[in-house]
Amino acid sequence: MKFMVPPASLRADNKDSINLAIIAMIMMCSKHINTHFHYSHTQLNEDVISIKHIPTENMIADGLTKPLSTVAFRHFIDLLEHFTDNSEND
Asked: What is the pLDDT of residue 29?
């Protein structure tokens, strides 16, 4: 029995890393990520994951990993509240 599961949505603010996963273009300077790249690319092609670009200022994880100004912290809290409200509807 197979269950249809939608792809896990990954959000990234680095357009080059998204392009590497989607376009399957390996450059000389990216050889050190060869193994990780192939895994991500395979998962993307098999619809296990999907990748969406999110601007840095809307990246919720940054509020947990970077020092924030007061304005940026308030924006982070707003993003968390919005994310929580949306996840309750799922």
From this structure: 54
The number of domains in the chain is 2
Beta bridge mates, 10 = 51
Enter the pTM of the model. 0.59
With respect to residue 1, please indicate whether it lies within any of the assigned structural domains: no
**Residue positions counted in the chain:** 90
Q: pLDDT by residue (tens digit) across 18-56?
A: 887 777 655 545 556 666 667 877 888 899 999 999 998
Same domain, 46 and 63: no
CA distance 68 to 35: 33
Whether 17 and 48 map to the same domain: the answer is yes
